[in-house]
Design a protein that fits this description.
With 663 residues, the protein is α+β, with helices and mostly antiparallel strands. The chain has 2 domains: 311 residues, START domain (Alpha-D-Glucose-1,6-Bisphosphate, Chain A, domain 4, 2-Layer Sandwich), CATH 3.30.530.20; 251 residues, Alpha-D-Glucose-1,6-Bisphosphate, Chain A, domain 4 (2-Layer Sandwich), CATH 3.30.530.20. The chain has 18 helices and 19 strands. The strands form 2 sheets. Strands 1, 2, 3, 4, 5, 6, 7, 8, 9 and 10 form a 10-stranded antiparallel β-sheet that branches. A 9-stranded antiparallel β-sheet has the order 11-12-13-19-18-17-16-15-14, with helices on both faces. A hairpin with a 2-residue loop joins strand 6 and strand 7. GO terms for molecular function: DNA binding; lipid binding. Pfam families: PDF2_C, START. Keywords: DNA-binding, Homeobox, Nucleus, Transcription, Transcription regulation. This is START domain-containing protein.
Length: 663
């Protein structure tokens, strides 16, 4: 804490010395107090877009959006800038609502007393509390248990893993009646009755009762309070079955695919939209000399998440085992550890799950993926209930599509998928530049998922003003990560139901020429796609550069780009973006390393909710130079977070409802 205070104090002093004595250096509170003053000419528009600043070096991220600039844009809008929502009659209330969120917990943020009066008219409350989470045992606790008691548990864990591997091998090769095709979900689902008949053995208590009846006499009765394998099916533990199967072809050879699945770091990176945290708890068996993964057995912990702080992550502890079935076929199997190391707080029990990998010609892999889980969804906000209870949120199909999308990146290097290039992209090393761009987009996706997941490390707090209870914020301090701007950043997330079909929302948000219609920081500019790289498998999966052109051909203003990736899976549709200045784009497209490009990712996820509606979850990341310490959220930041969400929702709804009304 002292180091962060020292850094921020020095940074503030440095910036103060660099400031010129003009009106732009006025304190933020003076800007807020001058809301009633009339803005002359284009000053309001310039304040809205003054984040498009000069850049000092090719890989600098001076395009990073800042809370202060968003604050200027929003206060200008309050002063009388036209609101697009006025174009739509009978528009629904644009407020944010997400029932079921918990607003209790330990305080984390604080406001200074002298700031409080400035938000009184918004119903500001000094209490800012962490979104409540279960006190789940951390991975380090289980690591200690596995390490200390390895010899005690090792034989049981090995037997458990081998049995799970054999069960999975049989399941992936079975057809009906074990697997039935669900026409609504467009995927194969498990026939639970057939599964229990084939694979579920009677627990020890029931076996003793049957033996007692068969023998016709008394025997030593078991302890009925003992641990039973399926004890978790009572009302307070997981009882909902989510089991499905998916088959697909992945553009990677089997050896590399197996290596990815057995490497916790790579696995969590490839599936970052689903795995918010993963830990290797211990390697129990090592592989052979030829391939260290074949025969390897490791205990793991992971958290599975949806892209919203409102939905609690699923925390699972399991063992993963890899075996080679023949010269060209591999099996990677997971199974929960609760039957060996009891953990009554776990709300997701992983029955034998995993994948069968078969090598094909030309370095391809045929993968059959099985998910077989017993879960407890618990308290879920109504707007997410359909996604979770339907079983598609963590279905085998979603795992498969995510893996396919990751390896499809190699196919998008083909030039025929490009649109015509714009300056400053011409006459560059396109092949290597494209690779750098796609690599940067992949890092952007991983960063977004890490910031906006609901994992236990992300301390989300509801906004402490009236109407902001379902808008969540958190701050983070970066001192040494070169891929993220240095200083304190504020992340804002909210979910809202829209009376608009999922695909309509997705197509509107992903279109480059629509960016200026909903993004407050490019509102009033012209935006369009300068470069568009589509997936060979699905054109909806694409990486693009959206150019923001200065208004009226202003030569004194620099162009800026948004790096954007849009993609879909069996659950939702996603648009992730981050601003990058023109010099950084030129630097990347020349084939130079993009690791030094610092960026803050923002984005949207669009989930289905009734045929005529959808759930839009927004995530905004902005730098805040005025935060003195990470725990302090200034009043203008609270105001900006609230208005940024509500105004963005209004602009999106206005554009889409206006479009639908004219069709």
């Amino acid at each position: 804490m002292e180091s962060s205070r020292k850094y921020l104090k020095e940074e503030a002093m440095r910036q103060e010395k660099m400031k010129a004595p003009d009106e732009t250096t006025a304190p933020r509170e003076n800007i807020a107090d001058q809301r009633g003053n009339q803005v002359e000419g284009n000053k309001g528009m310039e304040q809205r877009k003054n984040w498009i600043g000069n850049y000092k070096r090719p890989v600098a991220a001076n395009a990073t959006p800042k809370l202060g600039n968003a604050f200027d844009a929003l206060t200008q809008q309050e002063e009388g800038a036209p609101n697009k929502e006025q174009q739509v009659e009978k528009i629904r209330d644009g407020g944010i609502s997400a029932s079921g969120a918990s607003n209790t917990g330990s305080p984390n943020y604080k406001m200074f007393p002298e700031d409080k009066h400035r938000l009184d008219h918004y119903g500001y409350s000094e209490s800012m509390q962490v979104l409540e989470r279960d006190n789940m045992p951390r991975a380090s606790d289980l690591l200690l248990s596995v390490s200390v008691c390895a010899e005690v548990y090792k034989t049981k864990i090995v037997d458990l893993a081998l049995a799970a591997s054999e069960e999975l091998r049989q399941m992936v090769q079975e057809q009906e009646p074990l697997w039935l095709f669900d026409t609504n979900k467009q995927t194969e689902v498990l026939n639970e009755a057939e599964y229990k008949r084939r694979f579920v053995h009677l627990d020890s208590t029931l076996e003793e009762i049957i033996k007692f009846i068969a023998n016709g006499g008394p025997i030593d009765m078991p302890n009925f309070n003992g641990n039973v394998e399926f004890e978790m099916e009572n009302s307070t533990t997981p009882s909902e079955i989510e089991a499905s199967r998916a088959i697909g072809i992945v553009i990677v050879d089997p050896i590399n695919l197996v290596h990815m699945l057995m490497d916790v770091g790579q696995w969590s990176c490839v599936f970052s939209n689903m795995v918010s945290k993963a830990t290797n708890l211990g390697l129990l068996l090592t592989g052979g000399d030829g391939n260290p993964n074949i025969g390897a057995l490791q205990a793991m912990a992971a958290q599975f998440h949806l892209p919203s702080p409102l939905v609690r992550p699923r925390e699972v502890y399991f063992v993963r085992h890899c075996r080679q079935l023949d010269f060209n076929t591999w099996l990677v199997a997971d199974v929960s550890l609760e039957s060996v190391i009891p953990n009554p707080l776990v709300q997701c029990h992983r029955r034998p799950s995993g994948c069968l990998i078969q090598g094909l010609q030309s370095g391809l892999s045929l993968v059959t993926w099985v998910e077989n889980n017993v879960v407890c969804n618990g308290s879920v906000p109504e707007m997410f209930m359909q996604t979770l209870t339907s079983g598609v949120a963590f279905s085998a199909k979603r795992w498969m599509l995510t893996m396919e999308k990751h390896y499809d990146r190699h196919a998008i290097f083909q030039k025929q998928h490009d649109q015509l290039l714009e300056q400053p992209l011409q006459d560059n090393n396109l092949g290597e530049g494209r690779r750098n761009l796609v690599k940067l987009a992949e890092r952007m996706i991983g960063s977004y998922n890490a910031i906006f997941s609901s994992c236990s490390e992300n301390q989300w707090m509801p906004l402490p003003i009236h109407g902001g209870e379902d808008i969540f914020v958190k701050t983070s301090l970066n001192l040494d990560d070169p891929g993220t701007p240095r200083g304190v950043s504020v992340s804002i997330s909210a979910s809202v139901w829209l009376p608009i079909p999922q695909n309509d929302v997705f197509e509107f948000l992903r279109a480059g020429d629509n960016h200026c219609k909903w993004d407050l920081l490019s509102y009033g500019c012209m935006t369009r796609d300068a470069l568009h790289i589509s997936s060979a498998r699905d054109p909806a999966n694409s990486v693009s550069l959206v150019i923001v052109e200065p208004p009226n051909g202003r030569a004194d203003k620099s162009e800026i780009f948004y790096l954007q990736e849009s993609f879909t899976d069996s659950t939702g549709m996603y648009i992730i973006y981050a601003p990058v200045d023109a010099s950084a784009v030129k630097y990347i497209m020349e084939g130079k390393n993009s690791d030094g490009v610092a960026m803050l990712a923002s984005g949207f996820s669009v989930l289905p909710c009734t045929p005529e509606g959808s759930v839009l979850t927004m995530g905004f990341s902005l730098m805040d130079e005025e935060v003195s310490i990470p725990e302090y959220l200034p009043p203008h930041s609270v105001f900006t977070a609230n208005k940024l969400v509500s105004e963005t929702v209004s602009l999106i709804k206005a554009s889409l409802l206006l479009k639908n009304s004219t069709c």
